[in-house]
Amino acid sequence: MLTQITTVVFSPTGQTRTLVEQLGKTLGEKLGLPVNHEDFTLPAGQKEKRQYGPDTLVVFGTPTYAGRVPNKALPFVETLFEGKGTPALALVTYGNRNYDSSLTELRNELQDHGFVVLGAGAFAAPHAFAQIGGEHPTAQDKEAFAALAQAAAEVLKSGKPLKPVTLGDEKPVAPYYIPLGEDGQPAKFLKAKPLTDSAKCDHCGICAKVCPMGSINPENTDEVPGICIKCQACVMYCPQKAKYFDDARFLSHKAMLESHYQKLAPSVVFLPKA
Predict the structure, then answer these.
(1) Alpha carbons 94 and 114: distance in angstroms, whole number
(2) Contacts of 186 (CB under 8 A, 6+ apart)
(3) What is the third-level CATH fold of 195-246?
């Protein structure tokens, strides 16, 4: 018997968090259960191991980076979360290009660690750095969300044994998507890091606090000695708009996305079945 719902997210810019927590809230209302929120976006949340029993519904979400679960978040998914016949819903967001293998990868990891993933969804969202998908959430996104919430609630209320969800044609997890530039060639910007406009920066330190890799020096936020995953948290949350990227290959990929992916992508859900 379920006694609670727990949402779990990796969400540097907050879009995945909003989606996952909203689904948790909706299901809490439908099932009459309390909802707890857990977050492993920042270093402080990337240390403690968590275990969940069959009395907890876990709503788990990450964004899509290069068509997969973010590679720097994946080790935490693999090592920090353990279920024991725990019912779960797997959610990913993606920036209006394609979710590729991210949902399959997340579903697989959860199932490999003791969760029974009964439903799943890939939700289109505004891109983190390209000007595409800004109209999301659309009416179609909202309909997909409502369908997933309703189907999950009905299956969980039924008391019947849970069935693992099937994701379409069940393709295996593919290699990471290779970003392309405007010329159609691979755009290699792994080493790109954010810069600081010194005329705008007031040294508030917010960028260092929101970096999921802890890579920005809090004593001197011009310095980024650690790994940058291009999540855009520092850019998004800077109140002075002082953080930016000027790497030519990064900007070429951004331009390619804006040229080829203006059409609104759909949200896709795989509904629980009794």
Answers:
(1) 26
(2) 178, 179, 180
(3) Alpha-Beta Plaits (3.30.70)
